[in-house]
Amino acid sequence: MRPRLVFTGPTLSHAEAQQVADVICLAPAVQGSIVAAVQRYDPAAIVIIDGAFQAEPAVRHKEILWAINQGIPVIGAGSMGALRAAELYPYMHGVGLIYRWYRRFAVLPDDAVAVLYGPKAVNFSPLTHALVDLRMTVRVAWRRNLISTDLSRKLESAARNLNFRERTLSRMVREALPEAGDHDLQTCRQILAGAFVQQKKRDALSALQFMQENALVPAELKNFRMTVGFVQDLEDAGLAI
Question: Domain residue spans in the chain?
């Protein structure tokens, strides 16, 4: 039986993914990851959740289209996968709220799903929080009447203004309430922690469930062409087709 592959890390750990589905888990996708995985595993399907874009070039649109052209369904959700699925609609299968946001709101920043995370040795553990998760958390707390409208606006503004490498719940609260004392800061953190929404993880789990429950058919991709840029990307990644 051909395996199913999942590129994941900080959003959904490999252990969590394998509890939900019979999959081979790979590190967050980068340039060349999709081609290398197809050549090694000949997969029945690919799910892209996480992707890196700091130390290495991000996973290329063209290599995803190449995989689809090979007859492999590709699903995207949660993080980089949601972004690429929105950009490559209707060829990728997009799943989840974040994917729908990217499809609907073209101005949603790429770094809304970005987090800083550790290496493979620590299971790609996230070190910061994604803007989408913080925004959802603030809105849930506001809907539950746990925080005021004014505070919710200050918190969202603070989260947006932070670089993704520094974006944590604690830092967001401190930036939103610069004159508050330690007690008030801690109270606000506790309220938000109790309402915390892991939307990226929810969407990632939904993508695995979608893969489990559906007989996936790859999108029909007409007139796929190799380009000079794609060939160069492959060479840069030490690959050839």
Answer: 4-123+199-236, 131-194
